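Hi V.,

Quick status before I head out on leave. The structure for the redesign project is tokenized and pasted below; the design run finished overnight.
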């Protein structure tokens, strides 16, 4: 029975994760992202899969996926992607894995960079994420996966974030930001912590299952890196084609 549920769940997970190329992105694709990446960066992705549609609806954001850049060499001992693994991500069907940049090419992307981390902090952050490679989502819980079958589930706004964090034992890996939130919390780096009333700069941790990809974009402690501005930008050098 357990094996049958696992096989059914894996099939459902693959179906939910399957890209739909006919969905056009809402943001332009920036070709300079790869050259701007640094270890510790969080890469946000506007995906086109079935589950991405649900995540974007529930989070009211264009970002449906997040991956942690760990460097061109990837994780020690982990199988690299064909062009060299540089990202740790949580995939619904495959679990936590190491992939290369080619996994995200063609999609709108955004780089969110933590500020003020030293070399040892980054090493601990990356070691935590790499240590989770091979962990898998509990695909036996068909009901847990089935909540993503509706493209626009009728969920009241206050419940949407919690719906993403539902699990049945092991922490859910359906939402990739859970893994990355755990990694940053392991080195006590803030994402969107809960402020303590009456206490200046005193915060309480938000549970890692409640984080979504857009939280790294909204966080005041992550810098948004825009490749088009990284090398200097002069608007006067742009050439405009006037309509005929």
């Amino acid at each position: 029975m357990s094996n049958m549920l696992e096989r059914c769940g894996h099939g459902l997970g693959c179906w939910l994760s399957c890209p739909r190329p006919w969905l056009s992105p809402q943001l332009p694709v920036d070709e300079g992202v790869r050259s701007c990446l640094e270890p510790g960066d969080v890469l946000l992705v506007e995906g086109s899969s079935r589950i991405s549609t649900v995540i974007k609806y529930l989070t009211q954001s264009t970002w449906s996926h997040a991956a942690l850049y760990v460097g061109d060499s990837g994780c020690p001992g982990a199988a690299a992607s064909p062009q060299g693994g540089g990202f740790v991500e949580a995939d619904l069907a495959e679990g936590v894995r190491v992939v290369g940049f080619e996994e995200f090419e063609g999609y709108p992307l955004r780089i969110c960079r933590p500020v003020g981390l030293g070399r040892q902090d980054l090493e601990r952050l990356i070691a935590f994420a790499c240590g989770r490679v091979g962990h898998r989502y509990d695909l036996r819980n068909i009901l847990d996966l089935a909540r993503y079958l509706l493209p626009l589930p009728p969920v009241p706004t206050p419940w949407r974030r919690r719906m993403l964090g539902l699990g049945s034992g092991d922490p859910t890996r359906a939402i990739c930001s859970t893994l990355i939130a755990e990694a940053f919390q392991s080195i006590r780096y803030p994402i969107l912590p809960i402020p303590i009333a009456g206490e200046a700069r005193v915060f309480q941790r938000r549970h890692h299952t409640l984080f979504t990809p857009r939280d790294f974009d909204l966080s005041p402690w992550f810098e948004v890196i825009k490749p088009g501005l990284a090398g200097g930008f002069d608007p006067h050098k742009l050439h405009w084609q006037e309509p005929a």
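Above is the designed sequence. Residues 53 and 217 are 18 Å apart (CA to CA).

G. will cover questions while I'm gone.

Best,
W.
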